[in-house]
């Protein structure tokens, strides 16, 4: 579908410090530059005739995902463009904003120096970038902000760090805890993931047998020296297969996961194997090649001074017997099945062993492990500033959200003075995509 309304697209680029002054980050010594800079990119969408509308900056979910590359002005974007000029930011480390991958990190020397570099890509630095862009575009005039998921984490930090830059703050599915250890967050996400697993297998009961057959086959094939290989060359393990459960957190994720599991096996001369179609589909779901920062920074977005994740999701997993990861053998899988908990996919959880199994992540693994154990990263929120907030603010909260727990969202909303909440009992984490116009209409009406 083409753009329905004539729209002008303007590209913005600027250089900003890698380590913004005042945030407290270290510059990796291997850069041989006391004040290194990176490039920040944003696309501004302006509907013809709306050139005098105020600006709204959008923070993408993630971490590690670039701003959307729009091919049409449908959905929530069309609604935003009625009232605003939309600034779609590529958050640092993504898209055209000095994107990070294994090759870039390899240029930075030791894993410790690489960890210092990665630490500079959290939400406080993203907010400082946005402020630099705002001042470049419009001086001291504040702009509105909208953040989805991790983008909401960025907007919360914005309210804490630079509220003078905001005229309005809007959040969908993304109020972070300002004080809790990520262990608390992951206990809640595992509980919600359990509920969504139960819903999935109640809707598609035959898929549970399929899943057990797949993990037992993967273990048998590996033990026989003929592992199932993904298109990127590595063996598919049973523990990595379970990570397909991230689909369960999406509005239509039950259906997409069910269709992915259709007819996974084929008969070859050597016996039963997974089909190439299935392996390609699974590989596309599980590879972090396009977005390595999602893994590298996923738990660091909760990390603050004295709060050390140390692979929180992996540790907390052990507190839930139904999510316990069996040893890599078919017998262990059968023993797990015999315990009667049922097959369980994990959700939005990252694990240290992904650095061993995903070739896109292996070069980052040492640096990410160092970062995961740092206890000196700067605080991401000033709770005193939030308690005296004067920026008009509103957040959509979804009770079934599998990724950002409703309990955390409600707790944080109560900590931000004047924060209004809109609550859905039915929508999931991606409601901005699936119910975009309704979501935006309600946000705008609440702050009108």
UniProtKB/TrEMBL annotation:
Taxonomic superkingdom: Bacteria
Single annotated GO MF: aminopeptidase activity
Coiled coil stretches, renumbered: none
Entry keyword set: Hydrolase
InterPro entries noted in UniProt: AB_hydrolase_1 (IPR000073), AB_hydrolase_fold (IPR029058), Peptidase_S33 (IPR002410), Serine_prot/Carboxylest_S33 (IPR051601)
Gene Ontology BP annotations: proteolysis
Domain AB hydrolase-1: start-end pairs: 54-209
Annotated family: Belongs to the peptidase S33 family.
Protein name: Alpha/beta fold hydrolase
